[in-house]
Amino acid sequence: TKDIDQYSGVETTGHSWDGIKELNNPLPRWWLYVWYMSIAWAIVYMILMPAIPALPGLGTNTKGLRGHSDRAEVAKAVTELKTARDAQSVVLLDAGLETIETDRTLQQFALAMGESAFGDNCATCHGAGGRGAIGYPALADDIWLWDGSLDGIEYTIRHGIRHDTDDGTRFSAMPAFGRDGLLKRSEVDDLAQYVLDLSGRSDDPEAVLRAAPIFQQQCATCHGADGTGDRTQGAPNLTDAEWLYGDREADIEATIYNARNSHMPAWDDRLDDATIKAIAVYVHSLGGGE
User: Fold this and answer.
1) Strand partners, 185
2) pTM for this structure?
3) Among 29, 61, 91, 208, whose Cα sits 20 to 30 Å from the Cα of 4?
4) If pLDDT is split at 50, 70 and 90, which confidence band does 188 have?
């Protein structure tokens, strides 16, 4: 005989746990229909699309009647993108700054391509968005050691700085005044005070007076008599508040004593012309381009 629950009036399954009976409620009709449809859909999908993975002896997965392949679709999309980029790259190579800034489509293409290439090749040193770090120039300001125009930036990227194997590389060399015995330690310390004074931060006026003739004799040739620098030879401006290797007195003393001649690789033999131009456009757009 059927066991009917006296409280709900529903037939039970006959199972009971600790006096609790399991009711034999049927599944909702809508749930069953969805389940049956899912089974049917799975069978159709398995027939039309790659579905069954490679099993021993099969060699590969089932291909499906449609012959669909995500790998082939991605390869097709990459080929189409490369074709479109090649066409835009030709236009970009011959375009000047004014043309790029007025052609919205070309500008967006150059910035997107340049940002991607910058992230892959430049951000390790210069930081995301060109924010820079100690020893690595910030590219998002308007302070330039060399030429900050679009052509100048492209030249720097192409030939690098102090890159021995590139004849066109930008080159400058600061002497190690202390390490090489060009100046005494006391003169290096005085000279650091003089440099600090150029940006209004020295606290030793006597040291500044002692170092004035030393600066004119040893440093003015590159940095200028007033310390404002010379971008034709990559000599930084010493009168502003921008410091590549730190603005503390000890940092400046270390720079004078040991020199700082960092290296930037030449990308001419690593990146194609269009990518170099795109990076130059991106760097120029970061806020400091001229």
Assistant:
1) none
2) 0.71
3) 29
4) very high
